Amino acid sequence: MGKNNMNFAEIQTYLEACVPPRPAEMQVMETEALDTGFPIIGPASGYLCYLIARMIGAKRVFELGSGYGYSTSWFARAVQENGGGVVYHVVWNKELSQWAHRHLDTLGLGGVMRYHVGEAVQFLKETSGPFDLIFNDIEKHDYPDSLPVIADKLRPGGVLIVDNMLWHGRILDETDQSPDTCGVRMLTRLITADPGWAASLVPIHDGLLVAYKK
Ligand SMILES: C[S@@+](CC[C@H](N)C(=O)[O-])C[C@H]1O[C@@H](n2cnc3c(N)ncnc32)[C@H](O)[C@@H]1O
Are the beta carbons of 171 and 185 closer than 8 angstroms? Predict the structure, then answer.
């Protein structure tokens, strides 16, 4: 007999346990997140990002709202294994950028990396496309306004991945009308209603939106 009332947290623990072993430096980064409370995407989402990047043969990846390089390391691994290319790490905090730089060099992934300190949507506007894959993890109230810029820079057949689309369950709380929660809901409505995208919300970690640009 199966267990029909599966617990969300138990499923997430199980999914994490299914992720293959990572290089030691990535495990160091996972421990840093636990120690500092920094919100990384975690191994299950990271591995899915890596898989998607490998499956589409991504060579040009742009990350909006990077941290100290954890999600970046999954994309950089994929791009390196795809034969090389570029991965943009973009965050407005200089210390995080330098911290990421150290981790990615230690992982031997520095050759595909480009670093930029500044506002991510503005920098994407200024950067020549197209990109095969764009990953969005900026402030949640800025998600809706970032979509047209992303659509403009992604190639047809490219993939957009957006983190925190379950927003720790806050999207289900109708009394929560905070700008961040409304931003997540609005992006979901915009992208699922737009015939130019095929999108699915994957309930892994804090919810990954995976969208294909037609
Ligand atoms: C959730 S964390 C990134 C975690 C990272 N994706 C990972 O999993 O390793 C988001 C980071 O992006 C920064 N950020 C948020 N909005 C931004 C924006 N519009 N431009 C640049 N950085 C931004 C935040 O300060 C924070 O350091």
Answer: yes
CA distance 19 to 54: 16
Amino acid at 207: G
Q: Which of 40, 39, 103, 42 is nearest to 76 (CA)?
A: 103
> Does ligand 1 have an atom closer than 6 angstroms to the CB of 40?
yes
Whether residue 30 has its Cβ less than 6 Å from ligand 1: no
Ligand 1 pocket test: pick from 45, 66, 115, 146 the residue with the most ligand atoms within 8 Å of its Cβ.
Answer: 66
- For residue 137, which phi and psi values (nearest 5 degrees)? -145, 35
**pTM of the predicted model as reported, rounded to 2 decimal places:** 0.97
CB 141 within 8 A of CB 186: no
Q: How far apart are CA 27 and CA 193, in angstroms?
A: 38
Residues in the chain: 214
**26-70 confidence digits (pLDDT tens):** 999 999 999 999 999 999 999 999 999 999 999 999 999 999 999
